Amino acid sequence: MLMWGLDKGDSEMHPTSLVLVAIVNNPRDLEIARLLGWYRIPLRTAPKVIAVDYLAFYQTGAFGDEKWCIQYTAPVHGHELTTRAELLKTELDHPHAKEEYYKVQLGPLERLPRSILAESWRRITFLYTTGDYLLKATTINDLIVQSEERQLLWQALRERVVYNYGVQEIPEINLPEEILAALLGIKEGEIFYKDDDEGLT
């Protein structure tokens, strides 16, 4: 079982905090995050780097009047690789029960001072951003790290991989803009997400 953790003596979000916008497509999963302190991500659809400082939860159409927005964040304390069956023991007959999932350990959910609205963007997937962008955002569009800062964000994520996973240093290369944008969850100015439970079951 792979596990890592960060020293979270200071859990306050900072402008340089690494933030992963994560999909919550049913209220039960937000309650699990709130009450049990974890969030699951299927290994097969996981973003490239899980070792971030915070998750920000994008609420899909299942949330009724509170749909298509980000209202909550939570500090990340670590993660481990397990199976869906281990996470949800009452659903052992689920089609994905034996598949591997990341169990992301969380601190307390924190409500944002104002909701970050999707506006016309309803289709998103995992997206990397920073504390600075998150704390200033009023819409999902405001979370998109601008072109000139994307290399810096990717460099910070690469360093997190080296530090947390003990891999050899990843060679530094200048990635084409479209590849870099895709790695950060951005594609042609949009964030894509299919508004059902595909990929998160």
Structural description of this entry:
By secondary structure, this protein is an alpha+beta fold. The protein has one domain: Archaeosine Trna-guanine Transglycosylase, Chain: A, domain 4. 22% of the residues lie in helices and 27% in strands. Strands 1, 2, 3, 4, 5, 6, 7 and 8 form an eight-stranded mixed β-sheet that branches. Helix 4 crosses helix 5 (177-183). The chain is globular.
Topology diagram in text:
Layout: E1 3-5, E2 18-24, H1 27-35, E3 38-42, E4 54-59, E5 69-83, H2 84-87, E6 100-106, E7 110-117, E8 127-130, H3 131-136, H4 147-165, H5 177-183
Parallel strand pairs: 2-4
Antiparallel strand pairs: 1-5, 2-8, 3-6, 4-5, 5-6, 5-7
Helix pairs in contact: 4-5
Say which CATH homologous superfamily is assigned: Hypothetical protein
- Give the % helix: 10-25%
What would you report as the Rg, rounded to the nearest angstrom?
Answer: 16 Å
CATH topology: Archaeosine Trna-guanine Transglycosylase, Chain: A, domain 4
Strand content: 25-35%
Find the structural class using helix and strand composition.
alpha+beta
Number of strands: 8
